[in-house]
Specification:
This protein has helices at 3-17, 22-29, 33-45, 84-98, 112-124, 178-191, 206-220, 239-255, 265-277, 310-327; strands spanning 19-21, 50-52, 55-57, 73-78, 102-107, 129-132, 155-158, 172-176, 196-201, 224-227, 259-263, 287-291, 304-307, 334-337, 340-342. It has 362 residues and is an alpha/beta fold. Helix 9 links the parallel strand 11 (259-263) and strand 12. Mean pLDDT is 87; it is low at 61-69 and 351-362. InterPro entries: DeoR_HTH (IPR001034), LacI/GalR-like_sensor (IPR046335), Peripla_BP_I (IPR028082), Tscrpt_reg_HTH_DeoR_CS (IPR018356), WH-like_DNA-bd_sf (IPR036388), WH_DNA-bd_sf (IPR036390).
Length: 362
Amino acid sequence: MLAPERHELILRSLRRHGRLRVTELVTELGVSAITVRRDLAELDAAGLLRRVHGGAIGTIAEDRNGAHDSQLTIGIVVPSAATYYSDVIRGAEAMADRYGARLVLGVSGYDAAKEQERIERVLGIGVAGLLISTALGDGDADRLGSRLDDIDVPVVLMERAFGFPQVAREYDHVRTDHAYGAMLALRHFVRLGHRRIAINLQATVTAHWLRRGIEAAASTLEVDLFLSPVDLPEHGEDPAALAQLDAFLAEVESFGSRAVLVHSDEHGARLVERAMERGLRVPEDLAVIAYNDVTAALAVVPLTAVCPPKFALGQTACELLLRKLQSGPGPVQHLSLLPDLNIRTSCGAAIAVAPGVGLFRN
C-alpha cells in the first residue's frame, strides 16, 4: 500500500473515532510501527492531525466556511446523569460543541466497579481525553487504586481533588469550593442575627468539603454550631421517615437554634414540610438554608440555597481538556470555582451575599 493510500485511511479512521493508536493502525494497515509513526509525523507536519503519546488525535481547526474539518471525541464519566450532574454535563456539552468536539457519556451510579467498566467502555471507542467525576470522593481517596493512573489519555477531574500518595501523578482538576459554600451560608445566618446554627449533611462526597467549611466557621464566625448525626429522608410518609425528621427538629429545639443549614435541597424541602405540619412557621420560627440549589426553588416555602456553579464547572473542565489536547502538555491546573447564595423565602432575608465579600473577620 502506497503512502497516500495509507494517509487517506488514517484520516478516514481519525474522522470516525477522533483518536488513533499506533498498535491499532499497525494491525489495520498491515505495516510496521515505524511506518505508521512516519505516516503520523507527515500528517502532523501537514496540520491534518496531531501526534500524541501512542498515537494521534484530530485537530481543532476550521475550514473557510467555519465548519470543523475533523472532530475530537472526548469522554465524560459521572456518578449520575440527573440532578446535580445534569447541569455539569450540559456545561461540558456546550463547550464541546463550541470546539466542534463530540462528547460521549458514561454513568457509574456511584458504583466503583461499574465506574471502571464505564471508563473502559468509553476509552474503548478511542476518545482523545476524559472528564471524570469518580464514584469515590476525596474522603475515600485511599480506595482509588490505579484506576486513574492506568488511563492512557489526558484526564481532567471534576469535583474531585486527588493527590499524592493516593495517585501516582498530579491531575488537572476543576472543583467547587464547597467549604466556601458552607461558610457562605453560615455567614449569611450570622448577618441575620443567628448565633446558634444546627446543621444536617447528607452522606455524600460533598459532605467531606462542607465539614471543612463548618470547622472553619466555628471559630472564624464565633458562632455555636451543632452537626447532627440524624439521617434525614428525602421523601416518604412512613413512620421511620417522620421519626427522623422529628428527631432532628427535637435536636434543633434542644440546641436552642432557630436556623438550620441542610444538605441537600430534597432534605431541606422535606424538613420544612414537617416543621410546618408541627405548627412551626418558616422562616419566622425556623430559618432554613439548603445546599445544592437543584430543586430548592420548588419547595413549599422556596428555599434559600447555596448554588454550586454546576454548568460553569462542566464548561471549565471541558475547555481545560480541549485546550490541553490542542496545545499539548502544559502545567497542571487546580481550579476552584466559588458558589453563590440564592436568597429566597425560607431564611427570612432579601439581601444576597456576594462571593468573596466580607466573608472572614480581620
